Amino acid sequence: METVVLVLQSLKAARGGWVSGEALASSLGLSRNAVWKAVNALRRRGYAVAASPRRGYRLAAAPDQPLPEEVFPDPVPELVGLEPGSTFHLEYFPELPSTNDHLRRLGRQGAPEGTVVVAEQQTAGRGRRGREWASPPGLGLWLSVLLRPPLPARDAPLLALMAAAAVRAAAEQVAAVDARVKWPNDVMVPQGKVCGVLAELDAELDRIRACILGVGLNVNQTASDFPPHLAGKAASLRMAAGRPVHRAELLRWVLRHLGARYRQVLVEGFEPLLEEVRAFSATLGRPVTVEEADRTWPGLAEDLAPDGALLVRPASGGAPVAVYAADVSIRPA
């Protein structure tokens, strides 16, 4: 464990109290100079560390940033899959064009399952079908997670649903909001859309070599932070909760819920996940408009198929139609 994290853990253990430099050095097996350098490194990362010649150091405040030491403050590894070494490893960047693109490069270089790339800001974030995703600094969580599931490529849409279910559960737990999954890959609150998931594959027909789950989650925006064309459509957890939401804690629980559902899928298959999505769906039982490449038609969203397709009964009558890749919007009842 790096020296900076060791010093940070010791300062946090003091719960706002003073710790002398000598005590830090002695307990951690470091030199006084190494402690001083670690304190300065923490300050550069945004931590407010007070210093007193006679009393030592005190952690006055931690930044609201998804830094690895804030997301996972305990040294116990956070599990991802079933393999013993399958744990989350978080890499933080102040700015990236796209976390998905950066993680794809890492994956092709052999990055292990559970590698997470999170950026304070994306300059070229994107959603489904190449749509732009605004990713301003300090207001949301912009991240990508690398999985290497022993599954066929056709299961990719189900993995996107899995990530959306994990975000929904974390939002409910941390922000205490009524969050729902909108098919195929969004999370909604009553005020609008707060999250989108983008699953991208490196795969053969019979197996997935790597799946990158990109998550864009609006956390602390106010209504004025969104451009006019998104008014009434985009929302944030802060808007739903009526208070700011701590991003590092939220990310911790997003990843924990994602890991739990991923392990469940590997052991039990996707049916328990589909039952969860059915129970917390923003789409099922609602009138919808389906926009396909060659036609647009209304219907009623009735269920999810075992492969994750949305079953929509056309308003014109007939049997439910399995919808896979269309844009589906909810119509007023």
From TrEMBL:
GO CC term, one of those recorded: cytoplasm
A Pfam family it matches: HTH_11
Catalytic reactions of this protein: biotin + L-lysyl-[protein] + ATP = N(6)-biotinyl-L-lysyl-[protein] + AMP + diphosphate + H(+)
CDD domains, per database record: BPL
Cited PROSITE patterns: BPL_LPL_CATALYTIC
Name of the protein this chain belongs to: Bifunctional ligase/repressor BirA
BPL/LPL catalytic domain sequence ranges: 85-266
Function of the protein: Acts both as a biotin--[acetyl-CoA-carboxylase] ligase and a repressor.
Alphabetical list of InterPro entries matching this protein: aa-tRNA-synth_II/BPL/LPL, Bifunct_BirA, Biotin_CoA_COase_ligase, BPL_C, BPL_LPL_catalytic, HTH_11, WH-like_DNA-bd_sf, WH_DNA-bd_sf
Binding region for DNA: 21-40
MF GO annotations: ATP binding; biotin--[biotin carboxyl-carrier protein] ligase activity; DNA binding; transferase activity
Top-rank EC class of the record's enzyme: ligase
Signal peptide (from-to): none
Superkingdom as given in the UniProt entry: Bacteria
Family: Belongs to the biotin--protein ligase family.
Positions bound to biotin: S98, T99, N100, Q122, R126, G127, R128, K193
Enzyme nomenclature, EC number: 6.3.4.15
Gene Ontology BP annotations: protein lipoylation; regulation of DNA-templated transcription
